[in-house]
């Protein structure tokens, strides 16, 4: 009679190496922080104006290109947010996947916007989110908060 082979657990995965904090890593982190701050401002404004914001928190597990925010009130607004990096001074650009979602949403009759943290886009953002609501705001006053 032969004995079964002894139990051998699966090999442990290799430990992840910490992300290098070189120039690229710092720029990426600064861009992510700037966009997170901008998104928090947009969500705060949206909630003040009666919108129900939704953000996909685990984007790694979804299709690339899905908009950063979906806002509901009497209509639905899809928003892609781009912030200016404090290190590079550049504003993010739409990826090909984001452009595909933009085209799909607009073809279906949806409201899709790409807003940056510039003052010009902030005024448009305030106008779009105020439209149809009972509260009006001054974009410059809200921005200074």
Provide structural commentary.
The protein is 38% helix and 14% strand. The protein has 145 residues and is of the alpha+beta class. It has one domain: 3-Layer(aba) Sandwich (Trna Endonuclease, Chain: A, domain 1). A four-stranded mixed sheet has the order 1-2-3-4, sandwiched between helices. It starts with 22 loop residues before the first helix and ends with a helix. The model has no long low-confidence stretch (mean pLDDT 79).
Distance between the termini: 79 Å
Helix content: 25-40%
**Large-scale geometry:** elongated
Structural class: alpha+beta
Tell me the name of the CATH class: Alpha Beta
Count of structural domains: 1
Radius of gyration, Cα only, in angstroms? 21 Å
The description of the largest β-sheet is: 4 strands, mixed
Mean pLDDT: 79
Briefly, what is this?
It contains four helices and four strands. It has helices at residues 23-48, 96-107, 119-130, 139-143, and strands spanning 52-55, 69-72, 76-82, 111-116. A four-stranded mixed β-sheet has the order 1-2-3-4, with helices on both faces.
């Amino acid at each position: 009679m032969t004995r079964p082979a002894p139990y051998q657990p699966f090999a442990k995965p290799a430990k992840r190496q910490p992300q290098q904090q070189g120039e690229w890593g710092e720029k990426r982190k600064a861009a992510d922080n700037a966009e997170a701050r901008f998104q928090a401002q947009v969500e705060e404004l949206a909630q003040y104006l009666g919108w129900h914001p939704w953000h996909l928190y685990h984007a790694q597990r979804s299709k690339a290109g899905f908009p950063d925010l979906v806002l509901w009130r009497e209509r639905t607004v899809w928003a892609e947010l781009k912030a200016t990096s404090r290190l590079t001074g550049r504003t993010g650009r739409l990826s090909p996947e984001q452009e595909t979602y933009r085209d799909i949403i607009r073809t279906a009759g949806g409201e899709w916007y790409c807003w940056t943290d510039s003052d010009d886009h902030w005024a448009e953002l305030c106008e779009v989110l105020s439209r149809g609501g009972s509260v009006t705001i001054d974009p410059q006053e809200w921005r200074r908060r």
